[in-house]
């Protein structure tokens, strides 16, 4: 008889997804097998190269297509077929709101499988409307439990009807060892000298990332700095040309470097030689780049909207939290880190314990807490009870 599987379903497997599956596979050893079901061979959002991982098995349903290009009926048919073929198994789904995921999760739950949801959404991501939230609660009915990103994400799960005893944290996690290895430098305050480091932003160039505000803040910082550091932008997107023009208008173009989209092995060396990460998003469910930065010892300046601040960023300890409409505040924090090497070194050292919270091993612990180590166990975080049925949650 084949081993009972733990199955993770994502649209596309980038580095963050393979890190999580590999971490769980290592923890389970030979007792369970871990299978990743990838819907499309390319991501509809990110330009990363899909990865297969090392310790788990990955299956791709639509090898040469983005999932958005596949007809709905075919998506439902192939996902249901693939998941039922992997039973007996416990299933973890992202993209709960899509019809093909909802129907597959519902059928699996009705057939007796344990089904869990993974999400990093927060109530404060954008305006919420009563009718929409009521409908959303229905979409969560198939799930036995959830892995949330942080405390605000867990609060939102509770708002949508998930039992507090069935919610674990650390959904957004990556291999910090991989980040350090790819960077090829000692974590700060080791590595490149303080005076040689620049500020860095790693983000898609879309409105919610709020990069225009960061450029305005950089202009303010630059005007008051004796020897201003450069600002490096890693990412691409529809606003790239507009942001370059904005830098020209602000007369900072000579000191702002647009690197374009970079794969993770190209981003890590730049992060490892930077002074601080800036993430000023208007909307940011989490912000995995904060984990990457802390793995390399970088202080971070993040907006209060970033989900990563819940668990990883302590204001004035290992970074700063700023309002997303406050360029003067962002410029002030940039100036502090630019001028005060002692402050920067202390903050760099203070990232170490928080970096551990973002490691993929924590995701593996959360998954194990929900599923237990064998098919019959009903272990849940904090001494909770077995998951309720769909009828119990109605």
Describe the overall structure.
- There is one protein chain.
- This protein has 394 residues and is α/β, with parallel strands linked by helices.
- The protein folds into 2 domains: 5-174 and 359-393, Rossmann fold (3-Layer(aba) Sandwich); 178-357, Rossmann fold (3-Layer(aba) Sandwich), CATH 3.40.50.
- 39% of the residues lie in helices and 18% in strands.
- It has helices spanning 15-28, 72-85, 99-110, 130-139, 151-159, 176-183, 211-224, 240-249, 264-272, 288-295, 327-339, 341-350, 352-357, 360-371, 390-393, and strands at residues 5-10, 33-42, 57-66, 89-93, 114-119, 145-148, 167-168, 198-202, 231-234, 256-260, 274-279, 300-303, 319-322.
- A 7-stranded parallel beta sheet has the order 3-2-1-4-5-6-7, with helices on both faces.
- The longest helix has 14 residues, at 15-28.
């Amino acid at each position: 008889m084949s081993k009972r599987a733990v199955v993770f379903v994502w649209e596309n497997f980038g580095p963050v997804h393979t890190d999580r599956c590999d971490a769980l596979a290592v923890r389970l050893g030979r007792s369970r097998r871990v299978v990743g079901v990838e819907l499309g061979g390319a991501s509809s959002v990110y330009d990363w190269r899909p990865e297969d991982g090392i310790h788990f098995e990955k299956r791709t349903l639509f090898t040469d297509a983005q999932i958005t290009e596949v007809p709905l009926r075919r998506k439902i048919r192939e996902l249901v077929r693939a998941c039922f073929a992997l039973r007996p198994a416990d299933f973890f789904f992202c993209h709960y709101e899509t019809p093909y995921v909802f129907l597959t999760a519902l059928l699996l739950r009705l057939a007796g499988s344990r089904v869990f949801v993974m999400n990093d959404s927060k109530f404060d991501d954008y305006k919420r409307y009563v009718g929409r939230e009521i409908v959303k609660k229905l979409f969560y009915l198939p799930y036995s439990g959830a892995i949330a990103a942080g405390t605000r994400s867990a609060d939102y799960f509770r708002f949508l009807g998930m039992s507090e005893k069935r919610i674990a944290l650390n959904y957004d996690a990556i291999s910090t060892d991989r980040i350090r290895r790819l960077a090829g430098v000692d974590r700060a305050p080791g590595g490149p000298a303080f005076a040689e480091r620049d500020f860095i932003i790693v983000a898609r160039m879309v409105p919610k990332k709020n990069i225009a505000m960061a450029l305005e803040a950089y202009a303010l910082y630059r005007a008051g700095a004796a020897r201003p550091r450069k600002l490096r932008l890693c990412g691409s997107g529809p606003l790239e040309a507009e942001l370059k023009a904005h830098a020209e208008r602000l007369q900072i173009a000579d000191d702002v470097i647009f690197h374009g989209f970079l794969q993770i092995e190209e981003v890590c060396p730049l992060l490892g030689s930077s002074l601080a990460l800036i993430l000023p998003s208007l909307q940011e469910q989490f912000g995995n780049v904060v984990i990457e930065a802390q793995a390399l010892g970088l202080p971070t300046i993040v907006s209060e909207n970033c989900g990563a601040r819940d668990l990883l960023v302590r204001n004035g300890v290992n970074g700063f939290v700023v309002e997303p409409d406050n360029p003067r505040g962002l410029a002030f924090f940039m100036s502090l880190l630019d001028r005060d090497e002692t402050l920067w070194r202390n903050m760099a050292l203070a990232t170490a314990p928080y970096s551990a919270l973002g490691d993929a091993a924590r995701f593996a612990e959360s998954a194990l807490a929900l599923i237990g180590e064998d098919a019959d166990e009903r272990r849940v975080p904090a001494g909770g009870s077995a998951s309720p049925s769909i009828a119990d949650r109605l």
